[in-house]
Design brief:
Helix content: 25-40%
Structural class: alpha/beta
Oligomer: single chain
Largest sheet: 9 strands, mixed
Order of helices and strands: EHEHEHEEHEEHHEHHEH
Shape: globular
Radius of gyration: 17 Å
């Protein structure tokens, strides 16, 4: 459990789906950093394996389970978790990674002046063997709306932000390529964004992963252009509506 209970409370939003193979290890790595006032929201997208049973067996009062009977997909699953977050600082969490010690406290400190923080991470394989020491170096990660429209650096499992940005970010627009890219771009219209060059997560890549930001995009060039146009239009429309 976190050694800094005096810090502001946080909500960790984890979207799960058929994650029984890895989710216990991930949840333990998260709970080790949370105080009694924090919450871990597990929004499950109608898993067909033992995911929910494993989470329930942990019996930790900080865990809130949101169970869907209809599969919605990863983006809407994260949106469901975000809409239920109670606290002023929110972390996104994948079901198959490992958080490294100090992640929560480091991000909360930076969120005193920033609206969103992205930490670096180490890219690992299914057995946690390193593939790339730094995602930032691999991806050329840095802030900037046009920069991230061209080549996205907003990796959800490494992101923490103030709940206030959800006033502008939610509801998530239809047909987003990914929720984290949208949240990062919206945050840049709300205030300072910090990229912390410290690996505070093991970003696990395996055959069942929902996405692979560390690898080559599976979309065609035409699809990638379409994604970016839709994102830019959605961002402009959202800003005009939320003024």
């Amino acid at each position: 459990m976190s050694n800094h209970p005096a810090r502001p409370p946080v909500s960790v939003c984890l979207a799960s789906y058929n994650g029984a193979h890895y989710i216990e290890a991930q949840i333990h790595s998260v709970l080790d950093q949370l105080s009694q006032q924090d919450e871990l929201i597990v929004s499950d997208d109608s898993s067909q394996d033992q995911t929910l049973a494993l989470v329930q067996q942990l019996g930790d009062p900080r865990i809130r389970i949101l169970q869907s009977t209809i599969q919605k997909g990863i983006i809407q699953n994260f949106e469901n978790a975000l809409s239920h977050a109670k606290h002023g600082y929110i972390f996104l969490c994948d079901q198959d990674d490992i958080w490294l010690p100090g992640k929560v406290d480091a991000c909360v400190r930076l969120l005193q002046t920033a609206v969103l923080v992205v930490t670096d991470c180490t890219v690992v394989d299914a057995h946690l063997q390193p593939l790339h020491a730094s995602f930032f170096t691999l991806r050329g990660s840095r802030a900037g709306i046009l920069t991230n429209l061209w080549k996205n650096s907003y990796l959800g499992c490494c992101m923490a932000f103030r709940k206030s940005i959800l006033q502008r970010a939610l509801p998530l627009p239809a047909k987003l390529p990914m929720h984290d890219m949208w949240l990062g771009l919206v945050a840049q219209t709300c205030g300072p964004v910090i990229f912390l060059p410290e690996p505070l997560c093991l970003y696990r890549r395996h055959s069942q992963a929902n996405s692979d930001a560390a690898g080559k995009s599976r979309a065609t060039p035409f699809q990638q252009i379409g994604f970016r146009i839709r994102l830019l239009v959605a961002l402009v429309l959202r800003l005009s509506l939320k003024q």
